Amino acid sequence: MSAFLLVVRRDLRLALRQGSDAALVLAFFVLAVVLFPLGVGPEPELLARIAAGVLWVMALLASLLSLDRLFQADYEDGSLEALLLSPLSLGALVLAKSLAHWLATGLPLLLLAPLLALLLQLDGDGFLPLALGMLLGTPTLSLIGAVGAALALGARRAGVLLSLLVLPLYIPVLIFGVAAVDQAVAGSASRPHLLMLGALLLGALALAPWAAAAALRPALE
Amino acid sequence: MHRFANPARFLRLADRLIPWCAALTLASLAVGLYGALVLAPPDYQQGEAVRIMFVHVPAAWMASAVYVLMAVASAVALIWRHPLADIAARAAAPLGAGFTLLCLVTGSLWGKPMWGTWWVWDARLTSVLVLFFLYLGYIALVNAFDDPVRGARAGAVLALVGIVNLPIIKFSVDWWNTLHQPASVFRLGGPTIDASMLWPLLTMALAFTLYFATLLLLRMRGMLHAARVRARQQAEEAGDIEASPLGLYP
User: Nearest chain B Cα to A157, which residue?
Assistant: First the structure.
């Protein structure tokens, strides 16, 4: 247990030490969301209709930005191989790194999203499903992203390749996350969609560390 | 399975099988197309446009089946390190992507007269589009590494991760309200499609399968020969063997 927490603390400390990396991701999120009212016009009804989709898609893209550094930095200076020697299994290591990634990137995104929803004139009923959906969805994004980062480790053009690999797998999270908000705004229940997001999170928790570990092993041989 | 792990034995088998597969492909394609375009009756509602089904549906079946083949080959490669399994998966990927694209395009051409739209974002079409992107991602990943073995291993993991999409595609028409019609052939309770349309459909599916088998064997043979040429070139550069005159290799 303590080895797990040590890895989480190490990654968090590294992320905070280079605080500009995490801040860049958040700045991209804010800027990209702000582009939409400037692009489609400031009509409140139109913005309210697209708010959920814009926020979720931008959260997806923003979380993609920080993913290629997840294993790359440790791989380059050899600390990934050193971490293999710890009592932590490769799957647990992936889980620890994903948790640290979520704490450094996903959690700030989740906290910023309601503020940006104000800018996009989201209907009041949509705020709670948005926050809950992102709370359930952003860890899933970190976990699926970890699989992609492990697959693309050491590849040419790893950043773009990562997007191509990971975005199709993100689509279910996007669909249910947006549906939860849209259903709440329309007056029907968002709970089924939030439950599906929870199911996706549980599935990712069970399967993603295993898949990422299988993808990391050829890179470390 | 391990009998065919020897590339030389596989190449001899492939050389014998390819002409037969090609001939059977042409024969079943001829029979299937004749049945589809001439013998099968026009639909009472859709008229002659229903004949797109005889290309669209076999292409869709192949798109999913090839992905399953890729996933099984990837599992075999990862678990048993079978030397030809990686090559089979890499050879199958562009073929599967081609079938998926054919399915999407013919579906779109069929949708315009039938539904009035080229595209709709329902569960079936969206999940097949995701399948297409999974194929493209696999091809990109396998080609993104300088070391082909590393690329093959990474691709194997990706193919297995993407298998979750297959049940979603199959059952999407049951789980969601979709514009795409529900299953008429592979369903509990047997096919609901009339026999006069069923047999050309199955013949076309057979033709597509044989076509895929022919192309798969051709591609695998080509990839194995390319690997041999590469190995020889590397051995020459290392000075282990002399360069062959005229650059020819036995």
Answer: B144
What is the ipTM for the molecules in this complex? 0.85
CA B120, B121, B126, B132 dihedral sign is positive
pLDDT in tens, A88-144: 889 999 999 999 999 999 999 999 999 999 989 898 889 999 999 999 999 999 999
pTM metric for this prediction: 0.88
| A139 Cβ contact partners less than 8 Å away, ≥ 6 residues apart | A98, A99, A102, A106, A201, A204, A205
> Where would I find the H helices in chain B?
7-34, 53-80, 83-115, 123-142, 148-161, 165-175, 195-237
Chain A residues whose beta carbon lies within 8 Å of the beta carbon of residue B123: none
- DSSP-assigned states of every residue in chain A: -HHHHHHHHHHHHHHHHTHHHHHHHHHHHHHHHHHHHHHH---HHHHHHHHHHHHHHHHHHHHHHTTTHHHHHHHHTTHHHHHHTSSS-HHHHHHHHHHHHIIIIIHHHHHHHHHHHHHTT--GGGHHHHHHHHHHHHHHHHHHHHHHHHHTTT-TTHHHHHHHHHHHHHHHHHHHHHHHHHHHHHTS--HHHHHHHHHHHHHHHHHHHHHHHHHHHHHH-
Domain ranges, residue A60: 2-220
Q: Is A124 on the interface with B (CB under 8 A)?
A: no
Q: How many domains does one find in chain A?
A: 1
Contact across the interface for A165 and B146, Cβ inside 8 Å: no
Closest approach of chain B CAs to the CA of A187, in angstroms? 20
Residues of chain B with Cβ-Cβ distance to A165 below 8 Å are 137, 140-141, 158
Nearest C-alpha in A relative to B132: A168
A17-46: per-residue pLDDT in tens? 877 778 888 888 999 999 999 999 889 999
A&B contacts, CB < 8 Å: 57
Domain locations in chain B?
A: 52-179+193-237
Q: Interface of chain B against chain A, CB under 8 Å? A: 78, 126, 130, 133-134, 136-137, 140-141, 144-146, 149-151, 153-154, 157-158, 160-162, 165
Q: Are A174 and A56 in contact (CB under 8 A)?
A: yes
